[in-house]
Amino acid sequence: MRRIAMLGSGFIGRFYADSIEGQRSKDKIISIYARKEENAKKFAADYKCDHWTTNMEEAIAHPDVDVVCIALPNYVHADAVMLCCKHKKAVVTTKPLGRNGAEALQMMKAVEEAGIFNGYLEDLVYAPKFLKAYESVKNGALGRILWAKSRETHPGPHSDWFWNIELAGGGCILDLGCHCIEITRTFIGKDIRPVEVMCWADTQVKPIDAEDHAIGLIKYENGAIGQFEVSWAFRGGMDLRDEVMGTEGTIWINNFLRTGMDMFTTGKGADYVAEKAESNTGWLFPVGDEVNDLGYNHMFTEMFNCIENGTDPRETFYDGYVVNAIIDAAYKSAKTKLWEPVQLEVWRGKEGVTKQSTLVDYDVDHYLIKEEVTHYGAKKVVIKHKQTGKIVERIIE
Ligand SMILES: NC(=O)c1ccc[n+]([C@@H]2O[C@H](COP(=O)([O-])OP(=O)(O)OC[C@H]3O[C@@H](n4cnc5c(N)ncnc54)[C@H](O)[C@@H]3O)[C@@H](O)[C@H]2O)c1
């Protein structure tokens, strides 16, 4: 059983609490910190939490607390982490780890020097559909991964601080791109170095200083490409989709809209549908179990198991730091309109990886380019001569 201090009683704090205390869970939030007394009290009442406080250090230092869960705005993550280091408490932190790479690096170094457990709460690499897809990728069902793409777009976040570039650290690239980057990075291989980033970003709709729309490409050392598509101005709900393309196969995942449950209602008795759903009438796409389908259950199960077993979770502060470093390069590229290098002061993956050859021999003299059965019944091959480079096609049946 884990005894948790939850820092933050807002949107994600409550999703986390629903997961941590869901079903027949033994884990318990025993202390809640919120800035406002009424919010702390309400959360404590809702989750039958013994201790509430408006003093963050008091929640962290509570003698019965053995893990701290940070569910605070981006600009408070670093201060909260430093207090966990001071009190030597295991810490799990929501995304993004920092507002930029430098802040994330400082947090990573602090927890490692303090020798405390650290987990990065990137729920979307724990979503059941992601986990299933990732198993197939790891088993080689898709061959060499060439291109991994992830999209998170919605009509914009729910609290004021997100829209303030100083407090949030960025716009939708930081807020949503952090998910997409970790999803695509995991499919490509977290031990493969992200080399450079090309990004377009713009403020298309909202009256803000940060970007509300962006598309980026991340080049990896093995030649694979990661792609993120993010928006705070998308209409129609929350669009969470991933695509993985490899030499042997393809996976498409739709996590939130059109997931297999379609419903029509005139609006009579209409209620909450799903996160960021823009309507509760007409044709709707409810999500069966958001807490599970977004990965929170699998994420906390792994985090808490790792604390108990003394092992590292699949997502640590190091991963949060790499994601922040990639985002820094994306912001730079959006300004310079050039490919910008990913600056990683700390890199723990492979070095000097080259593009793996996937040439297929057709016969001793030729490589196979393509084989196809046409609609008129012919079986064709397109082949390339190994010495001359000449490309020819042959009908073989
Ligand atoms: N899927 C996800 O992983 C996911 C989803 C949403 C938000 N988040 C992240 O969770 C964090 C919190 O976002 P949220 O959506 O819950 O925000 P929110 O505004 O709904 O809640 C934030 C909470 O922090 C408190 N707070 C605000 N300012 C504070 C301050 N200066 N000091 C201390 N407490 C303060 C608020 O009172 C509130 O309880 C952010 O880092 C965000 O990126 C993650």
Short description:
It is built from eleven helices and 18 strands.
CATH topology annotation of the largest domain: Dihydrodipicolinate Reductase, domain 2
Count structural domains: 3
What Rg, in angstroms, do the CA atoms define?
23 Å
What portion of the residues fall into strands of 2 or more residues? 25-35%
How many distinct helices?
11
List the ions, cofactors and other small molecules found in this model. Answer: nicotinamide-adenine-dinucleotide
Task: Please tell me the CATH architecture of the largest domain by its name.
Answer: 2-Layer Sandwich
Q: In whole angstroms, how far apart are the ends?
A: 66 Å
Strand order of the largest sheet: 12-11-7-10-9-8-15
Structural class: alpha/beta
Question: Which regions have little confidence, pLDDT < 50, spanning 5+ residues?
Answer: none
How many distinct beta strands? Answer: 18
Which homologous superfamily in CATH is the superfamily of the largest domain?
Dihydrodipicolinate Reductase, domain 2
Helicity range: 25-40%
Instruction: Determine and state the CATH class of the largest domain.
Output: Alpha Beta
Query: What general form does the structure show?
Result: globular
Order of helices and strands: EHEHEHEHEHEHEHHEEEEEEEHHHEEEE
Largest sheet: 7 strands, mixed
Domain Gfo/Idh/MocA-like oxidoreductase N-terminal: 3-115
InterPro entries: Gfo/Idh/MocA-like_OxRdtase_N, GFO_IDH_MocA-like_dom, NAD(P)-bd_dom_sf
Organism: Panacibacter ginsenosidivorans
Domain GFO/IDH/MocA-like oxidoreductase: 130-251
